[in-house]
Structure formats: structure tokens, C-alpha cells
User: Fold these one by one.
Assistant:
Number 1:
Amino acid sequence: MTVARAVDLLVEAQHLGIGYGAFNVIQLEHAEAIIAGAEDIGLPVIVQISENCVKYHGGLAAIGTATLILARNSQLPIVVHLDHAEDENLIEQALELGFKSVMFDGSTLSWAEPGPDGGDDQALSRGRRLDRGRTG
């Protein structure tokens, strides 16, 4: 199956009156267990990779790619989400790898300071079907 977009799962969940779980990945074994658990109960899931996880692994490529492969190999819709990213380059890397859901954490920015929430995120997402979110 393809990697799912969070918005598609959330719309479905709202229509069904249910919720889907979102769980943080730190090690690859976490991603394997989360997806296996979702498959056991037959429900989609959101697996989240944080900027702290990326720092722990020394980069996004290995943990991100491995998690995306697990999601693609699942029979269920699985969202692979970059969560609370403060680094715009990391967001770009996630999109290039194939993430369909990212959240820029602008909580440390002043309201006057620009973040990737206008023209910047539009340029990043052009030609891609993905979900975008910003906190702050």
C-alpha cells in the first residue's frame, strides 16, 4: 500500500466517529511494533518521527527510509509523519524521502518572524500531495 496522508485518515475517522492512534518512533523496532499492532487490529495508524529522533540517529535518511518501507509494505494505510520540526531543511529532506505529513514547530519564533507557512511551504509542497501544519 502507499504511504497515507494524515488528512485522509482524519477525514475518515471523523466520518466514522472514531480516532486513530499516533505513536512516536525512536528506534526502528518501535515502527515495526506500532505497524504490527495496527495490522493485528486492522486499523490505520500514524507513526511519528520527531526532530529529536532524527538527532538521535544522526540524520533522517536511515530511520525515515526504513519507516517508509515498513509503511509501504503494510496492507493498511500508514501515515509517516515528521513531527515538531524546527529545521526547514529537515522538512525538505522528509518531503524528498516521501513523507506525506509534516509539522513545522514555530513555537520558538516571534509572530513577526517568518516561518514556512506562506510562500515557503507552498514552494516546498508544490507538486506533492501532503499535509502541512505549524504550531506557534
Number 2:
Amino acid sequence: MKSLRTFLRRHTFGQLFAYWLDQIAGITVRWIPGYTGFVLRTLWYKLTFRSLRGIALVLPNVVIEHSYGMAVGRNFRVNYGCYFDARGGITFGDDVLIGPQCVIVSSSHDTTAKSIHDGPRALIPPTLGAVSVGHNVWLGAHVTVIGECLIGNNSIIAAGAVVVDDIPENCVAGGTPARVLRRIE
């Protein structure tokens, strides 16, 4: 009961309602193929995202939870099968391309020794950390971005990378955890 009270205190009624709508209407909209699907998803995201400038070209089977935390620039393109948890906030700049099966999570679970004794792990409130993706960024297939981090402008994240720290501008990064592989001149 204590965790439920904490959860309710951390979220406004509007956020809880938006999350519920994400789950109900989002399930319907996310599966519609073709041009009709693109139009309906863009309209849906205009209503539920914190902000959406321009058109979001999001392919089917993309799951966005806590969409009230998403801020998206122009020319936002997302491939099949991606998952975004935006409860801690996710910001995308202009001209962002996201490959298939990417995961971006702006929350995590407390891993301190004290939290182990606070009760079931599923009931411990998450720690939130905003993710910021700059302008003209390409995330390759199966990239995972976890927690509070910044991906700089004009960067490329190689397929399969796990980003847990900031990535500077104008570079190619890859690996687990992701590190700069080379600069882009």
C-alpha cells in the first residue's frame, strides 16, 4: 500500500490518465499499417506527447509507454519493434532515425543494498533519469539506451550498442557499454 501511495504521489492525474490512454488507444493505433497508420499515429502522438514538432514517421509495432514524457523534433523516424519508456523524459532533436528493435528507457530500479530490504522489488518506485538525443542522430538496430544520458548532435550509435553514459557530438559510438569508436569530421 505504501508503494501505491508513493506511485500516486509521483504522478499527476493527467499523467495517469495519459498512461491509461496509451495502453488502451495506443494498442489499437500501433498496429495499423500503411499511410492510414502513419496519419493516425501522428495525430495520436500530437495529443499525448509533451511536444511533437512536425510529423512522426513511426512504423507499426512500436510501443511507447508514458508518452507524456516524450518531446520530439521534426523528421522523427522510428523503425519496427522499438520500445520507449518515457516516464523520466525522452527528448529527440530534429532529423532522428531509429533502427528496428531499439529500446530507450528513462527509468531504472534502485539497486542499493537498502532497497533489497524495502519489500518486493516490483513495488519499489523507479528512479527517473531523462534521456536526450540530439539533432541528426542515427541509432542502429537493437540499440539500448538506459537511464540519464545525452547523445550529442550528428552522432551514430552502432547496432547492438548499450548506451549508459553521455556520447559526445560528431562521433560514431558502439559496444557494451557504448564508447566513442571514431570522430566524424
